[in-house]
Model the fold of this input.
Amino acid sequence: MDKKTVTFTVQMDEDQAYQLAQFLKRVGFSEIRQHASDDAEAYIMKDGLDQVRLALQRSGYDPR
Done:
């Protein structure tokens, strides 16, 4: 089954972008798993969050 790629644009101010990048850096699998129905869903969620983190990084929001 082919999966459709979804592209979206989000506008936020610099503080929001930086703090979101901080959150995505800090959130772990255990926190994600708490909100998923099973491990497979949690891994898919983590992969999606990683894509957002990478987009923020490419935009210059890469907290150390």
